[in-house]
Amino acid sequence: MDFFEYFKIIKMEALSPVEVEELNLKYPGYRHLIANIIAISQDDNTHSNDLHLSTTKEELVYNICCTLGEKHSVEIELLVKESVLYLSNQQCLGMFYLFTTEYIKRFPACIDMVIALVNTYYHDNHEMYFNIAHFYKSKNSPQFAIDFYKKAIRIKPGHIESIYYLAETLAVLGDVSKAEQLYKLLLQLSPELPEPYFNLGNIYREQGKYEESIQHVHTAIKLKPDFTAAYLLLGLVLETAKHIEEAITCYETLIEVDPSFYEGYNALGLAYKNVGKYDLSKQVFLKSISLFPNIPKLYGNLANVLNDNSEYSESLAYYDKAIQLEPNYQEARFSRSLVHLLLGEYDKGWVDYDQRWNLPYFEMRNYSKPLWSGQQSSGITLLVWAEQGFGDTIHFCRFIKLIDLKKMTVIFECQPELIDTLQTFSPNIEIRPLHSVTDDEFDYHIPLLGLPGMFKTNLSNIPGTLPYLKAPDAYVEKISKKINFDNKFTNIGIVWSGNTKHKNDHNRSCHPKYFSGFQQAGDIKLFSLHLSNENLILAKDDHGFIEDLSDYIKNFSDTASIIEKLDAIISVDTAVAHLAGALGKPIFLILPYVPEWRWMLDRDTSPWYPTMKIFRQKTFGDWQQVLDDVLVELK
Predict the structure, then answer these.
(1) Burial class (CB in 10 A: 0-12, 13-18, 19+), 339
(2) Tens digit of pLDDT for each residue in 129-185?
(3) Distances from the Cα of 47 to the Cαs of 42, 501, 530, 583, 622, in angstroms?
(4) Whole-prediction pTM value?
(5) Dihedral through CA 468, CA 469, CA 474, CA 478, nearest 10?
(6) Residue 17: is it exposed, middle or buried by C-beta count within 10 angstroms (0-12/13-18/19+)?
(7) CA–CA distance, 216 with 111 (Å, rounded to integer)
């Protein structure tokens, strides 16, 4: 009778004193160990049910250790060390495999003990270290994972799995160069594997090497025709590389390959949306939610499509459904708030406008001082900080005057380029550049666009006294010496494009050629208010009718000084439009088919700027109609 048979008998309390003594003689040191294990398994109810009589010896030891749990590491180490003496090599391998896979998953606190045992008995076994590395990877401890993958590779330099997961982990940590080298090594060692091609394709995509990315992902698909993630990646790269039709075909193939993969429908719907094929996009998303009725993202993206197609009541219904499925769906909540604001439903819109701080493209300041909740008490210093673009700062700085400046001290942080202009806003507000105010200088803080909701702004109480800005006197004097406009003409400043980094700039900006009709009006002169004259050179080559003022414009105060000397401004939705409005100058705002929320819908005036006249696209992308309407208005 060997030890393991004895253990079974002891567990069943069927061993006589003579047999116990025989056991003690045959296996020195086991008697007390077994007695302790049996006592622990009887007293500790946590794992006692796990101790069953396994068919193999290595499983028996493993189950005993599971019974002991993480509280009794001393007994576990003793049991393993003694068991190694009596198990065959194959049985020991099986036992340690269980320890480096199942056991450490179940008892992660015992990882150091398991590593120590592996270092003692299997320091030359690459699989044990690979298993430990995989454990650390699953526990989001990438540096430990890297160390043990490297140990496995040192023992067996060509171990494919260790090389692959080491590369994957390095890529996650941002060491893309080493990851790329390892994936290339894998292509040499196992060229039939699709995953290294896929991951190299992903690396090349992030590096902007789109053609190389496409080539590698194509190879991955050739090696594994049902590789759904590869079809998705290929489609995304093709879209980024402006191969739109190929991307759409790729997504369609993905859906054929795996109809159960909802991301395929999502990608196809977004691809149609991104090229303005809203009806096709809508069809795809409607089909997707019929197949996958519990995926919030599909409802949210369908709502986005409807929103872009001016189907606002329908989009609100689908945002509601998405949020019903996932109440913490911040992007849907924020997008829904923008629709409410666009419709002039400000009371509903401001409620979720703060959800922007949960999105990656907005960043809340990490101050030690609390956010302001609206209390206006004497002696408080409040920091208001600009959070979005130049136009937003000009637009919403008006709300600072609603704060009781007699009781409170207000510091306003804004973009450095706007400081000189905003100094004219109020003598009672200290204007500072962004990120220049320290925590010890204020009691509370609030982002600028938090003020409209704080003051429960609606269409009837928008603070709109004009002008609330003016060009600084020194700049006016400087510009007056350099520029004189001929009063025989109607002198109009124009802006046809905004910041090219703006996510909607391709829709809100137009080409200067659409102003060509103004040449026929002999009493109108056009002047570019752009800082850069790159587009103007093109306009002069084509038409030669727009005067370039960029040599005189170095900042917003220069622009404001010129605006004050002009008769009117024509501008797309950019900062100059807000500046003209804040200066109280006649401003003709030209808008794309789907406007930004603040301009609302179906109106040619703005409650934000009384001197503004709005001209909107009647069909998507038709800027010529918009500029023709402006010209008729001017005549």
Answers:
(1) buried
(2) 999 999 999 999 999 999 999 999 999 999 999 999 999 999 999 999 999 999 999
(3) 9, 59, 74, 76, 72
(4) 0.81
(5) -130
(6) exposed
(7) 38
